[in-house]
Amino acid sequence: MNRPLERATRVSLVTAAILLALAPPARAVNFDTGDSDLKLRWDNTLKYGAAWRLKEADASVATPATQPNVDAGDMAFGKGLINNRVDLLSEFDARYQAFGARVSGAAWYDHVYRQDHNDYPAAGHPPNALGTPNGQFTPATRKLMGRKAEFSDAFVYGGVDLGNRKLTVRAGRHTLLFGETLFLGANGIAYAQGPVDLIKAYSQPTAQFKEIALPVNQVSTTLQVSPALSFSGYYQLEWRSLRLPATGSYFSPADFVGDGADVLLLPTGAAAPRSADRKGRKGGQFGAQVRFKAGDVDYGLYAAQFDEKAPVPVVDGTTGTYALYYQRKVKTFGASLSTVVGETNVAAEASIRRGTPLAPLGDLIITVNPSADNDGNTPYALGNTFHANLSAISVFAANGLWDGASLVAETAYNRLLKVTRAPTGIPGAVPDALNTTHSRDHLAARLVFQPEYFQVLPSLDLQVPIGLGVGIYGRSAVFQLVPEKGGDLSIGLNVEYQKLWKAGLQYTHYYGRGGPAPSLDPATSTNASYRQYYKDRDFLSLSVQRTF
């Protein structure tokens, strides 16, 4: 760690300690309105986090000589500090009888991204960004990763009784997830309902899908016909893409996607600047579900139409530019069930997607079609796919090894059923499969086992989360959940004091055959590698937070 970073770490640690120490003792502010029907509550959580890279960049993963489009995130950081961040989450809730409103916002500052990084690209290396000097993060990267404030939830809600039935409505920016997925929501029905924050997912591998979901403006409603039957639906008024790690940030898999990405280096030596993204629509995204119970089993039926949140990078061979395409009007239909088997809650869901793009993030598409779009004339292949998730939640009683423990696990499987559109010019395209680097089937799994220890010291509880992600087999033609025959292992130590203070220490290790995310040399391949592109990015993270 260099001296400026050491000084920055000390300053932020002292600042965070002072801020946390000065926080008022109450958990939340509950306002006395004088009316028992009117409830007002204000919560704030202040958090300090730091993380350190444990390995130097590996030449087998970061290959600037042959793959200069996928090296900035790896090469910008040496062994040492990668995050030095203060977060504030503020949440306000108001409720009057059956009506209410919620507004929440987040702000953060990370000193690591407000200064220069390693002197990379080096002299003679093509630029990773246009207009940004070597050794500096792009302005967009500095903003997203280093200093930003934003609203999260902002919605109103209400409910009315219709005889023996109840109708509830929610309007504004909020999250809504259908189905039974826990971790691998990209494979599930919930993928249709909104984008996720991949920055948070990569930095917290044990986070569940609901914890990384991002809200969108929408109107959603539920009609509870009886305790055993309900109908729900939504219509979205906003489209948001996945929140990818900004270009050049630590978890960035490729330099040409994410905030701050503005150039793609071609094998000819030319630099293709980024043109306007082909985005999704503000409207035209909607869905519905039916939930019912029969015996001890809860069932669900689902249908939705959505615009993709993950981009397909496309090079326009006629203009020499590239753009990110987000496919429109993908349709999904699915079903789920949930029940209890012994002491374990078991859930499963299955779904089919129609018209989904068959080019995972990392595949590069080259087109000379001037009328190409992200609707009916795509330069990339489309197809129909099958998806299935199986999950389980088990709680274990106290014994000699722990005071309590839980196991949360999920497997996800997807299969390419049919290619419905295969434009000419896609390398390796064949009638029944996208290309020779992809497989029809893909299976992955993720689990978190967490023993707990209560009152280790007065008012102090302890948890030891152990997380594992594994790519069991296959190279999905839809998306990569976990690298083929690779994954990640994390071990943490969390403490909670008086239900106010929380602190955590986590080690994350990436395993599997290392390599860059895609190979972007049209002379050999323009497809995703399915290798472990975080092989050399093991890290240790520390966090301290307080709610008041």
Overall description:
- The chain is mainly β and 548 residues long.
- It has a single domain (3-547), classed as Porin (Beta Barrel).
- Helices cover 8% and strands 46% of the residues.
- It has 5 helices and 25 strands.
- The strands form 3 sheets. It has a 20-stranded antiparallel beta sheet that branches. It has a 3-stranded mixed beta sheet with strand order 14-13-17, with no helix packed on it.
- Strand 9 (263-265) and strand 10 form a beta hairpin.
- The model is unreliable at 1-5 and 426-433 (pLDDT under 50).
Instruction: Report the order of strands and helices.
Output: HEEHEEHEEHHEEEEEEEEEEEEEEEEEEE
Distance between termini? 34 Å
CATH class designation: Mainly Beta
According to CATH, what is the topology? Porin
Notable traits:
3-stranded mixed beta sheet; 548 residues; Porin; 5 helices; single chain; 46% strand; mainly beta
Secondary structure elements and their pairing?
Layout: H1 3-22, E1 29-31, E2 38-53, H2 72-75, E3 80-96, E4 99-110, H3 139-146, E5 147-162, E6 165-174, H4 198-203, H5 209-212, E7 216-226, E8 229-236, E9 263-265, E10 271-273, E11 285-294, E12 297-306, E13 312-316, E14 321-325, E15 330-341, E16 344-357, E17 365-367, E18 382-396, E19 404-421, E20 441-457, E21 460-463, E22 466-473, E23 487-497, E24 501-511, E25 539-547
